[in-house]
Amino acid sequence: MSTAVRMEEIVKRYPGVMANDHITLEIEEGEIHALLGENGAGKTTLMNILFGLIQKDSGQIYLRNTPVTINSPSDAIANGIGMVHQHFMLTPVFTVTENIMLVDRSPREPFLDHEGVKRRILDIVQSSGLHVDPDAKVSSLCVGDQQRVEIIKVLFRGAKVLILDEPTSVLTPKETDELFVVLRRLAKQGHAIIFITHKLREVMEISDRVTVLRGGKVIGTVLTKETSPDALAKMMVGREVFLTFEKTPVHRGQKMLEVIDVVTRAGQACTGLKGVSLDVSAGEILGIAGVDGNGQRELVEAIMGLQPIESGDIRIKGKSTRGCSTRKIIDMGVSNIPFQRQTEGLILTFSVSESLLLKEWRKPPFTRNGLFDKKVIQNTSKNLIKEYDIRTTGPDAKVGNMSGGNQQKVILARELSRNPDILIACHPTHGLDIGATEYVRQQLLNERDRGGAILLISTELDEILAISDRIAVFFEGQVMGVIDAANADLNAIGLMMMGIRLAEIKKNNSTGEKG
Amino acid sequence: MPNEVQENEAGSRNIDLEHLDLLVRRYGRIISAVAPVTAVITALLLIGVLIFSLGKSPFEAYKALFVGAFGTLYDTATSLTRATPLILVGLGAAFAIRGSVFNIGGEGQIAIGGLAATLVGIYLPNLPGYIHLPLTLLAGFIGGGIWGAIPGYFYAKRGTNLIITTIMMNEIALGIVQMMVKGPIQEPPGNYPQSPQVLPTAVLPLIIPGTVLHAGFLLAILFAIILYVVLFHSPLGYEVRAVGENAIAARHAGINIFATRVLLMVIAGGLAGLAGASEILGSQLRLRPAFLPNYGYEALAVAMLGQTNPLGVFIAGILFGALKAGAGSMQRATNLPMNLITVVSGVIILFVVLAKIMTRLPRYLAKRSAGGGSGDFLSRLLASKSLKGTPHA
Q1: Order of strands, edge to edge, in the sheet holding A192-197?
Q2: Does A93 lie at the interface with B, CB-CB under 8 angstroms?
Q3: Considering only CB atoms, which chain A residues are within 8 Å of B235?
Q4: Right CATH number for A245-332+454-510 from 3.40.50.300, 2.60.120.280, 1.20.1050.90, 3.90.190.20?
Q5: pLDDT tens readout for residues A16-41
Q6: Which of A77, A102, A336 sits opposite B252 (nearest CB)?
Q7: Does any CB of chain B come closer than 8 Å to the CB of residue A350?
């Protein structure tokens, strides 16, 4: 196989940091090459240089062994390099065809070439397996479909080298699998695929080779089949990483949170809850497993009083929360790490100290006689920054300028420092690198050992299995079953995620044994 | 700050947009203070060119404008008197904008506030001044507050378009005042569309004898300080800013968004009503139709020029008041039309808005170029817009 791209001795300096420190990277035709590294390791910078978004300070790029200069994305596209970004660039009111038409001039100017573009899209769909209806409006497509449109867009422009920036961060497990099938097919057709990620499991599953970056340097390039997740994690973080946790035996206290036969209204985009019953005791973590969109969000919103319940009851420490405002429920000792940290958990224009205040701002010692005590707020913030290892220039820094991991630490600090009785953690490590993930999970375990009742909602089964004490599986707004995490049957969880009740699974198993 | 940017650019021909954006955000506070000053200076320069092209001397015109506004104690007092309603309405508008509530209803709230104050000022006799005057001012605040609360309620409850409803409320309010001064409260014998004078016990005293400056200006100072403290040093201001910056996160934090939005409209309307009351009780002493024409709209400009910071609004209000007060002097000295001052105000606002766009431009361009080719400009524009809107949860 021949070399598709060779980046040699690439250097990019930012004030105070070496984003790329003499990086050399070689991608072969027909291979899927994972670019692995923690947030801030320089992966995206390197790829933005290749795509012409950022100018390198020194170094040379070769395409098929010919030196090229790439000063802009149009240079990159002309050289057959395409990039699919984390955030999609689609016009929702346009159809797929219309969106793709935007990338290129029409051959029939001043008229649009609807038919021609559509034909070419269908050709791409045929050969790549990226199934999308060219006449569908983008606003009606789910995230996975939108991503396919983005990939088609890149292929439409004739890219032979595809850069995918954390493509799975927005996908469900099923959509991820579908994406991987497409990527393998494209690689087989001779495309070179660069896959930026920080998820080890995906690297192991999809890539042929892996290059690990850390602190702007290449730590090494290895063949995927000759390495292991533990070895990669060590290369990535620079030390041993504990992907499994030492868990103390569970000491269940009183029932803190009881969800009793709760029904919420189903909407167009949500299934609603159809009679969900759960309980979480002090000192335990109840993990909610299930594919996203099966009622997890409705459950959290019902508990937090953000969404009314039709029937049933939710009790906190034995007291019903019916008719309680969100404020009241928070004050009953409920903390929440919301699903969307940037839109629901934080106000990005607020400073770190203002963000840390976003639960307790009306209470002393922060507010006295109706006015803020800025000194107390400042000192508390400084302590929390230290305690939770938040990397920032100080309490006055804007949270919007911080990395996702640090933003999550701000939320964690805010929610845990209240010593809540109940913590609802939704996707607490979503989009975080290994170091931060490890930190967040350890904090949740500490909170459990302190005696907090934790409801953990995650689509990552690994996470649920790693720290939960019991696991409840959601499917279409119902609980399929609750099992002990200690000797959890992965197969049973998988079946429950597909909508088979635990009772049925048990029945089948026992009849199977008899026969 | 501009030097730093240039140094960083000097190295490579390609402007590092993300870096520029970082600098803009880091020095955001300084920029928001410098931007309005720059806007005013640029606007004056530009209008200077216009004056020059009309064959007049811009220096003479501006000198006459300045002397007219601040030449004597009397002139200064007049400027501050003109500024008083602009500051009060502007403060309310700015406070509401901090909570993402855009009150275009200042015009109507001024009118209803003025009407309420006139009614209490005329028809509550035999009260001592220290009771009657506060009561009359309070009536103005309540009148304007109710006029703000009505569209505010529908906006907060149902998400009706506040711009449309407040403008409609303006028309209704002006109509009511017209009707009142031509009917029920018209001054006998009915030659003019105006009310009788308010009772002396409800009149705001002058604070500089021999000028027109009345105690309403003290109210403007008072409320500028109060709103500054509330906005940046109190839980209420914190909640307002939280709702304004990200209503979804505010809801998750347990803030009652509905109550906050209605309250903002009550405060904005109330301050506009107070402005109407103070104008009548301090300057005009009787109700006439459109007694503060266009002040409700100009106050929005004041709020923007003041960067929605109460202290900034205070300064911006004085500037706009001075422009109004000095316009006549400029006309007399140079024979330039008084309306030129409206053009000056307009151009200032244009530049303030431009400055705001400019500070967001690096981030926008950085995001745009991060998207790749030049083709999907439209899609990115739309995407950025849809992200900015406050989705209703």
Answers
A1: A81-84, A161-165, A192-197, A32-36, A209-214, A217-223
A2: yes
A3: 361-362, 367, 370, 372
A4: 3.40.50.300
A5: 678 899 999 999 999 999 999 887 78
A6: A336
A7: yes
